[in-house]
Amino acid sequence: xxLLAFLAAALLLTVFNAQAQVYGPYDDYDDYGxxxxxxxxxxxxxxxxxxxxxxxxxxxxxxxxxxxxQSARGMIVIATREHTLVYTTTWGEQFAYPxxxxxxxxxxxxxxxxxxxxxxxxxxxxxxxxxxxxKLPAVVRPGPSNPLxxxxxxxxxxxLRIHGTNDPSSIGTNASSGCFRMYREDVEELYEMVQPGTxxxxxx
Length: 204
Fold this sequence. Notes:
Layout: H1 2-19, E1 65-67, E2 75-79, E3 84-88, E4 93-98, E5 101-102, E6 110-119, H2 127-132, E7 151-155, E8 160-163, E9 174-176, E10 180-181, H3 184-193, E11 199-203
Parallel strand pairs: 2-11, 5-9, 8-10
Antiparallel strand pairs: 1-4, 2-3, 3-4, 6-7, 6-11, 7-8
């Protein structure tokens, strides 16, 4: 009897593991017609509980802070070619972070602003993403498989995001569908400093 119970438990565990999904680092949209799948103003319920996985990022250098010699204070500047995001505080301190940027043909340049922020965001694949990959769910809850990581900073009324990632190896490359990925520690630090209304300049 104990042997049968053990075999049944092993079978259930095997089935559960086979159904477990870890979703790849899809980004916020897959083409320029798919921006609005996730309204940054919608009142999502707070996630409960959030699974705290061991972070897989490489800890960035703490040498990134330096005094600003520029006058653009309280602003985020993204240098696409350098894969770098620089935030200058209102008191003149700079924080430079490595990022992943959009693939060729998916990059955007110009001036925008932070419109909202969300800790432990949900990820909602677009309809076209789900057509290409029917295994994708309508919503991916916060956790280690979420492609947005632990923080999302929404830009330009939801058009673009600065966010974490479940693929830290992509940082420093042209990997996304237009958004800007950061290491977990970095995006959590930036999230605490920037506020809605912060100007964002995206350069080539």
